[in-house]
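Section 4.2 – Deliverable D4.2 (structural model, holo form)

The reporting period included a commitment to supply a predicted holo structure for the target in complex with manganese (II) ion. Inputs used:
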Amino acid sequence: MKLTVLGGGGFRVPLVYSALLRDHERGRVTQVRLYDTDRPRLDAIARVLREQALDHPDAPEVMLCTDLAEAVAGADFIFSAVRVGGMEGRLCDERIGLSHDVIGQETVGFGGISYALRTIPAAIELAERVHALAPDAWVINFTNPAGIVTEAMSRILGDRVIGICDSPVGLARRALGALGISSASVEIDYAGLNHLGWLQRLVVDGEDVLPRLLARDDLLESFEEGRLFGAPWIRALGALPNEYLHYYYYRREVKHADQRAAQTRGGYLLGQQAGFYDGVAKGEGSALALWEEARFDRETTYMVTNRESVGVGERDEEDLVSGGYERVAIALMRAIAHDQKARLILNVRNRGILADLDADAVVEVPCIVGASGAEPIPGSRLPEFGRGLVINAKYVERCTIEAAISSSRTAGVRALALHPLIDSVAVAGSLLEDAIASFPELAYLR
Ligand code: G6P
Ligand code: MN
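Output (structure tokens):
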């Protein structure tokens, strides 16, 4: 099988490759084409992969491409993980947001909308090229903000594009871990949009074990999301929120912590990543060791201001192993390739599953995955307290897509002003002006 990675010079590519190296079964991936517009980054990642492949005689062949047609033609699967505007862009969004007293995080509120506005045109172009060059390929979208980018791409690729995120399954894993359950056959009842959903039931051997967790403060506060939201609030909801809901439920505290921090997340990662890529280019020792070190550091500091904002300490050691998103991606790819009927939480078109949203709205829900793709499993529904927020967020996403497709500033302001984390129409206008002035990629907005 042939896999293409768009954004092949990206920092997380070695996670994908390590998962491929662990797969020895028939029908596995034998060729990986890494496509990137940034040759030095591509070369650095290729060096890491070469070290990973040592002692793996059956390691998938790696090809480096800076030509999209060459990268995509004949691919069975395409992972799309691009960052339009780079880490500099992430930092710039954070700064603009905080300067107007709103959160600038890359997937939530202003930061998410700005990032989407510069990413959607590129994602649509990629989708069109894939549709023309490899119409039978499956596209697995990692590009953030993943829900909205997947929805934009689905307008061209239909259900052949599937968005993924590690946070829902990570939440379920941590919740089960708190209960001491490691059962493989768990039905996770989770529904929402990407980075905006809730785990409502965890069914193990026919029994919903979530009430057992909700009844115990000590267990609830023994894992990341439990500590972030606090046992009383989780009990008040009767469901476990995705960690990104912290930006909504503790917006004031997180914003203040972000404003107090010496560096934003993007600023921190910009320096850290530059250190890694430069270090590899200069041949400062083992590329793999440099990557491991940077990865561990990145995991350790993940969501650090959120944790600081509510006074919770360091992350658990088991959460540092990896983000786990490569595991979701590989599981999805194998389930399609081998018609495995796997149950995974994915970003797919709603097709009537969530009653509050239309059929084409991309939602994050449990799906059954086989040779014909990912089908949302009937029975999901939004929690009562989450319906308004999700309907609002989807409307904002639609305005953002409309702004990108029809080059409309008006739609952009509508998206920003109607987002619950942006508290003034005037601020929405200023945010958009600043973004347009800062990003050449937004020059299309009129
Ligand atoms: C989680 C999210 C991803 C996001 C990442 C950011 O894994 O699910 O969507 O890209 O965190 O991590 P970072 O280290 O870039 O802050
Ligand atoms: Mn995610």
